[in-house]
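Action item from last week, closing it out:
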Amino acid sequence: MILAGVDPGKSGAIVRFGGDYSPFVHMMPVITGAKRDEFDAPLIVKMLDGCSHVFVEKLQPMPLKAGGSIANFNRGFCNGLFIGLLTALSIPFTMVRPQEWQKEMLAGIPGEDTKQRSVMAAQRLFPTVSLLPTPRCKKPSDGIADALLIAEWGRRRLGR
């Protein structure tokens, strides 16, 4: 069984657990354009093809005062992209709210910042997995950490 966890933002990541549940980490494939970056949908399809189940973080709309309309449109587009791709590929998937997976996966991790807590939890659970987006980076990616934790949360849900 091959499972995947997805942190769907443009700075997010896709993590696949192979048959032995060793994680394969991929930064979210994005094509850099002149006006704006776009998701590389064909590459996302290749990454998710063959998965038995995919767990995707469900992006929530924000109040207008906290970052509102354009951000909410992008969140809706991103959710729709993954729902569409996974439906077209006939891959079972679960959309999971951040609060739902974070409640379990960040339990016992001190602090207020969920990004830092995610990095700490991922480093504890997967000490051999690099959270650096590239070999030259010095700061761990919370996108990789979130995708790892979402995949692990999903693995636990399926009892694997």
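Closing note: The longest helix spans residues 68-88.
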